[in-house]
């Protein structure tokens, strides 16, 4: 059985927005920026590397609530934000959409897109909503969201290339309420996608199921 994709806040992993159906395809874009340096006498410019650009993922998320006869915006607006969910809204942060401005961060939150074993730390850069079915009452019950996710990496992680683990020391982690493997991997390794290292070391088959008080071995990242 395929695991449905979902999006969650990195800092509040219990705020999960499930996709009712798995995406049919996923496009990943990665680019580098080069400067052209013209040198007299040469037949072509010299290219000098300037910087790398963040990876961008584009995909369509499909939502259908026709059978339940409920407004599909109960799901889609949890991503794009409610009509009242602006920076001036009185809504609490946990009720806002993932593209709304968090009152503590003063910016939209960093998110995790998770689809089976694929974990992508990102911000939601752009979403286009298309409603394709309505009930006679006038509310939509089917929608497709074209979503663009841009990879997010903390500045400290980019500036420093650190391996904080010693080969002769075994670290352990005590699971707390709200912990997830990808959040633990992000804190220990600086990359949530490294959750597989912890899962394999502890014989965990379902990365979403952790028990508070559970002791995890944190293996050294080679």
Please give the structural blueprint:
Elements: E1 6-9, E2 16-18, E3 26-29, E4 32-37, E5 46-52, E6 56-64, H1 73-80, E7 111-115, E8 118-134, E9 140-151, H2 155-159, E10 171-174, H3 181-189, H4 195-202, E11 215-218
Antiparallel strand pairs: 1-2, 1-7, 3-6, 4-5, 6-9, 7-8, 8-9, 10-11
Helix pairs in contact: 3-4
Describe the structure.
With 222 residues, the chain is α+β, with helices and mostly antiparallel strands. It has 4 helices and 11 strands, in the order ββββββαβββαβααβ. The protein has helices spanning 73-80, 155-159, 181-189, 195-202, and strands at 6-9, 16-18, 26-29, 32-37, 46-52, 56-64, 111-115, 118-134, 140-151, 171-174, 215-218. The protein has a 7-stranded antiparallel beta sheet, covered by helices on one side. The longest helix has 9 residues, at 181-189. It is flat, with a radius of gyration of 21 Å.
């Amino acid at each position: 059985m395929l695991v449905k994709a979902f999006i969650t806040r990195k800092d509040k992993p219990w705020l999960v927005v499930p996709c009712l159906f798995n995406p049919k395809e996923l496009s990943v874009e990665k680019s580098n920026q080069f400067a052209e340096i013209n040198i007299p006498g040469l037949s072509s410019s010299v290219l000098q590397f300037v910087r790398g650009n963040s990876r961008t993922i584009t995909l369509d998320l499909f939502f259908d609530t026709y059978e339940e006869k409920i407004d599909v915006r109960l799901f889609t607006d949890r991503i794009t934000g409610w009509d009242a969910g602006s920076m001036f809204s009185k809504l609490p942060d946990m009720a806002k959409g993932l593209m709304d401005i968090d009152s503590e961060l003063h910016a939209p939150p960093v998110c995790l897109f998770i689809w089976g074993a694929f974990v992508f730390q990102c911000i939601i850069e752009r979403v286009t909503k298309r409603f394709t079915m309505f009930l006679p009452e006038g509310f939509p019950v089917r929608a497709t969201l074209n979503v663009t996710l841009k990879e997010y990496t903390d500045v400290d992680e980019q500036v420093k290339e650190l391996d904080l683990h010693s080969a002769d020391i075994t670290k352990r982690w005590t699971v707390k309420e709200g912990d997830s493997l990808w959040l633990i991997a992000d804190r220990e390794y600086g990359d949530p996608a490294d959750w597989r290292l912890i899962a394999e070391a502890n014989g965990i088959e379902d990365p979403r199921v952790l028990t508070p008080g559970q002791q995890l071995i944190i293996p050294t990242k080679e």
